[in-house]
Design brief:
Helix content: 40-55%
Largest sheet: 4 strands, parallel
Shape: globular
Radius of gyration: 17 Å
Distance between the termini: 13 Å
Number of strands: 4
Strand order of the largest sheet: 2-1-3-4
Structural class: alpha/beta
Number of helices: 6
Length: 178
């Protein structure tokens, strides 16, 4: 899969996110007490699309972790799912920082809002504190993201059918990958 350079939309997301994040994070706390920013990219994005944002967070003294989702650019897209991406986000994007006792802000964009919300379940600071564990998620940021009610999918929440353009696009995408 060819990765395209960041679009103007990506830069707008970066500017919006940076503004929000700096307002939330700027505090006189010690650098070791600052939260980690975990970024879950959108479906057709890779970490390169968020690098400008990550660089600015680094300049502000904040650490950032971001990884490409397994479903992005997969050689076998039919084997991918929201559940797979959620497990990946939890295991590789969130759990290492949280298990190290860090507080984490998870930023999701577009598609990753769904698997990001699933991955975050049970990892809040409050839930972990109640279990006698340090660290946890202190915030979720959804940028133009999809989020379904618990127990529902985006399909069930929108009348039970994909829009015609989704069927056509996914069909073309999957057929071109086989």
């Amino acid at each position: 899969m060819k990765i395209h350079p960041p679009s103007i939309f990506s830069y707008l997301v970066v500017i919006y996110s940076l503004s929000f994040s700096l307002l939330v994070y700027t505090s006189p706390t010690a650098p070791n007490d600052r939260p980690v920013t975990a970024i879950a990219p959108a479906a057709w994005h890779s970490p390169v699309h968020y690098q400008l944002f990550a660089d600015q967070l680094h300049v502000a003294g904040l650490s950032t972790v971001m990884l490409q989702l397994p479903s992005c650019g997969s050689s076998n897209p039919r084997a991918q799912s929201v559940a797979n991406d959620a497990a990946f986000i939890k295991k590789f994007l969130l759990q290492p920082s949280i298990d190290a006792g860090k507080r984490v802000v998870l930023i999701t964009h577009s598609y990753s809002g769904g698997p990001g919300a699933v991955a975050a379940k049970g990892l809040s600071v409050g839930e972990r504190r109640a279990a006698g564990k340090p660290g946890g998620i202190i915030g979720l940021v959804f940028i133009s993201a999809f989020v379904a009610k618990q127990g529902q999918s985006l399909i069930s929440g929108s009348g039970g059918q994909y829009a015609p353009w989704v069927i056509q696009y996914v069909s073309v995408l999957c057929n071109s990958c086989t």
